[in-house]
Task: structure prediction
Amino acid sequence: MSDFTSNFWSGYVAAITLLSIFACLLLLFLTARKKVVSKGEDSTTGHVWDEDLTEANNPMPLWWMGLFVITIVFGLSYLALYPGLGSYAGERKWSSAQSYQAEVQQANQALEPVYARFDAMSTQALAQDGAAMGIGERLFMNNCAQCHGSDARGSKGFPNLADSDWLYGGLPEQISETIHKGRNGSMPPMAAAVGTADDVRNLAHYVMSLSNSPHDSLRAHLGKSKFTACAACHGVDGKGNQAIGAPNLTDQVWLHGWGEQAIVSIVNNGRTNQMPAQEGKLTEQQIKVLTAYVWSLSNQGGAAK
Result:
């Protein structure tokens, strides 16, 4: 990898920054040495506008020049202490990432007494606790709603968390594992294993028939034998496999769209879905409350599925 990287741009940024500062200092020095030449007896340039508006030609006040010097000294001092010269980290080794982590840690410590009340509570008990659900909702809005939506009902390519259909299982421990570790679901392109383009179309209709969705029964009959290419993941009955996140094809939940065209596209091109892991970003206590909130979305009565 070192063959493809270089310190050129870091040095380039540092050089441009320092040259700009010293150029300002040089300009200030040359301006201060330049003698003022006046064309008028009252130190004006001789230019007159609107009959009586004259342009003065006086040197800059010393206090103004002093401000320029202070600004330059401040700039050089800042660049010595903090990052700004390419890859140079500065004497104080400050970074925005470290500052952010320190603020997050401080906030988490301040919230520990709030979460301490939830430590001994089960998922079902947390789901009945108004304060816990209020916190869980905010955690969901800040970390999950971007993909699953503010109402948790998802969209094309993003699972609905408010129904009873689960790719990896809807038990509290399974939801917790999903939040902790994330998920990476991948279906490879299967067209070559299925056969011809017409075989893929027939398979699409057979898949639709599994959930009693509108389909061409003749094509579905012809596509049944082609489903063997899919059975390794989705099962011979098409009910999926939560251990690997293979969707149930016998319900009418379509994550990537319904219909012949959508299914043919999936078979031809495959699909990859990824949910990022939240451990390290959220504390264990936050994940516990968030797990209870997600679980409660499809268990309004508070009973385990």
